[in-house]
Write the structure tokens for this entry.
Amino acid sequence: MAVAVSYQPQILDFTTASIGLVQISHAPADAVLVASIVAGNGAYKVDSVVVYDVTIEVVDPGDLPPGHKGPPPKHTVYTEVGRSDGSTPLFVAAGQFIEARVLSLPFNGVPITDTVAGLLLIQGDTWNPKRSAPERTARSWLPKATSA
């Protein structure tokens, strides 16, 4: 049975940046995944897909200000455990954090100023399709997570 996937943001806008990140904060199930751009007329490229283990750790007491009262605070630690260019299959375990990095590419060295919609497809072999209507703003694209 396929498992639903949540990701953020739903839409990236490249009007002021040439790099976009799509994050899956909590993989819902073990999966082997790949990522690709399936629309966008050559304007976008998957740069990397990175998988992290996430742990919550207590802040070292030596890092706290003098006279700190109360329980020590905690912070989130991300440890990279896998990396791919998107085309090489990558295993992700349930609960891990995933980040896909997408580059906006200029045409003939000139940045694009017109509307160019694209679609990032992150395929996990146990994940359920996740669809939204594309929004067409200048240099925007729509990420998508789906089953293989």
Notes: The beta strands are 12-13, 19-24, 31-39, 44-58, 74-84, 90-92, 97-104, 119-124, 140-147. The longest strand covers residues 44-58.
